[in-house]
Amino acid sequence: MKAAIYNPYLDTLGGGERYTLTFAKVLAEIGYDVDIEWKEKSILDKLSKRFGLKFPSNLKIVDSVNRGENYNLIFWVSDGSIPTLRAIKNYIHFQFPFHDVNGSSLLNKMKLFRVNKIICNSKFTKNVIDKEYKVDSTVLYPPVGTDIYKPKRKINQLCYVARFSNLTQNKGHDVLIKQFKKLVKEKKFQDWKLVLAGGVEVGSDVNLKNLKKLASGANIEFVESPSLEVLKDIFGKSKIFWSGAGFGEDEVKSPERVEHFGITLVEAMSAGCVPIVYGGGGYKEVVDNGRNGFLWQSEKELINLTKFVVQKTGEMRNISTNAIETSSKFGYDNFKKNITEILK
Hints:
Blueprint lengths: L1 E5 L8 H15 L3 E5 L5 H9 L7 E4 L10 E5 L11 E6 L11 H7 L4 E4 L2 H11 L4 E2 L17 E5 L11 H11 L9 E6 L6 H10 L5 E5 L3 H10 L2 E4 L19 H8 L3 E5 L4 H4 L7 E3 L2 H13 L1 H15 L4 H12 L1
């Protein structure tokens, strides 16, 4: 059997690309010869190093998969458009909540006749896609390397991992920097550090420069395009995972501006970090407020929740334990099991 994979964003090396490559890995493991469309063969090595994935020999890069023609199956990551797919079984994946793109046009409806299933990365994305394209999509949560990240000896460190670009999503780095500078004015937090890590491959130059300027004078470290080993160290040592992704955005009018799921959130939880994240988008599907982390709505609440967690060490331990337990639900084994169910 032959399977084709298409994702126009592979070189961004983000969470959606990990999703795509892990889907391809599963197909290869269950018996498919997998072809991934990309012009540069070196992309597989880059993806492998970034995500710590090992790919079977029956998975390779090719110049074109020709929209699935002569393939048993194609997995196509959409850029908002609906392609005319030609495989025996056709699957379209939305990792982005596209809206106002005339998704339910007659032409799209005709193309969707050949699509076996539309797959979304979260219920949040599904709700937007179903409304826009008039479909009933299936949620397949992203695979997270929960077996990779482990708690280490925790230090007084907050962390946030997200791309440094603000091309589509509002990643919220600026609000975290401003609030951290306020937080460390208090004696109890003067020895705390904030680590901001993320990819810089696409569209981050100006934003990153402005963020560094904003952070000047504070104990804030920027880690650009961290390796897997560096991420393991950051998550392992950090006590708290902060996120301001989507803060200040209207997720109904602009769903693309908030976090669609939150892979780095789950990675941090698997390393025992206590999440204190903005209560919007896909984060609400992962964090059970008060049990395995906290969802905040205002900057004041972000600060107050952080103080509460640090002061209540027993509470921090309980939430950390619950966070690790929750993260296991998003591991590779469950992802593989769910794919096999979808393919049936």
